Amino acid sequence: MRVFEEVDAARTRLGEMIAEASRIVVFTGAGISTESGIPDFRSPGGIWSKMKPIMFDEFMASEETRLEDWRRRFKMAREFTAVAPNAGHRAIAALLASGRAGAVITQNIDRLHQRAGAHDAAVVELHGNAFGAACLECGLETTLAAAEKTIAETGRAPRCTACGGIVKSTIISFGQPMPADAMRRAQAEARDCDLFLAIGSSLVVYPAAGIPLVAKQAGARFAILNREATELDPLADAVLRGGIGEVLGPFALG
Ligand code: NAD
């Protein structure tokens, strides 16, 4: 493992690794969106210092908890809509547009990669996203607006209009099964790349944090860009320390 502490050195090394790669996969966490004004989980002032997450089994067990979950989801969707993608998102969109990167695998639920210009098909959302809703039984999709209207009119959490099942936002909660297609696609992308670039993730939330290991085991170079140490630093070929915007900014220009 080589650690690059200076921004210039980190940027130079990243540029070299990108130039030497023929298929890059980018993996992002909450850290890439902090410069857009969305707090991450584990930094001081992060989401977990303010409220405890609602676990999937708690959501399933109680109508009151479901109503609280929906209140948080409506607020979150509005907050995410009000912010804009930053230089980090734009740099990744540019890497995808140039064909150097084939996919971005993200733990984020804010859709800022897509809003920066990444094609939907190139974004693998491991934890879903904050802008949809669907029945947990039959999968029928509905909208946040419909859920909000139901709650306003009835005071009850929405049920599926087709099968009566519990409707939930398309965010994957802690304790909820991972989306099988997204996991399969992420593993395949990780196996097929020659440079795996993890950006803005503490790399502690599993199974997502297992994806870089798939790439590493398949022989890819593995680089981490994060302002503090992560769990997987010892396995990385290069650890780039610094703010994401300052290190990735120049790559946003293509
Ligand atoms: P995390 O909070 O555990 O880690 C974020 C990491 O990014 C930290 O190590 C922090 O030091 C680093 N970081 C923050 N801002 C940075 C910056 N500007 N430059 C460089 N590094 C920076 O987040 P995680 O690893 O993604 O895992 C937590 C879970 O959080 C995920 O499951 C994700 O679904 C969820 N989450 C998503 C959002 C979002 O969609 N924007 C926001 C909060 C949490």
Please give the order of strands in the largest beta sheet: 1-10-9-8-2-3-4
CATH topology annotation of the largest domain:
Rossmann fold
Number of domains: 2
Tally the beta strands: 10
Give helix % range. 25-40%
CATH H level, superfamily name of the largest domain: TPP-binding domain
Broad shape: elongated
Beta percentage is: 15-25%
Oligomer: single chain
* Residue runs with pLDDT of under 50 for 5 or more positions: none
How large is the count of helical segments? 9
Rg, please?
Answer: 19 Å
Structural class category: alpha/beta
Task: Please characterize this protein's 3D structure.
By secondary structure, the protein is α/β, with parallel strands linked by helices. The relative contact order is 0.21. It has nine helices and ten strands. The mean pLDDT is 94. It is elongated and about 60 Å long. It folds into two domains: 1-38 and 85-129 and 178-254, Rossmann fold, CATH 3.40.50; 50-82 and 132-169, 2-Layer Sandwich (SIR2/SIRT2 'Small Domain'). Residues 29-31, 33-35, 38, 40-43, 46-47, 107-110, 127, 200-202, 205, 226-228, 243-244 line the site of nicotinamide-adenine-dinucleotide (NAD).
What would the keywords be for this entry?
254 residues, alpha/beta, Rossmann fold, SIR2/SIRT2 'Small Domain', 2 domains, 3-stranded antiparallel beta sheet, binds nicotinamide-adenine-dinucleotide
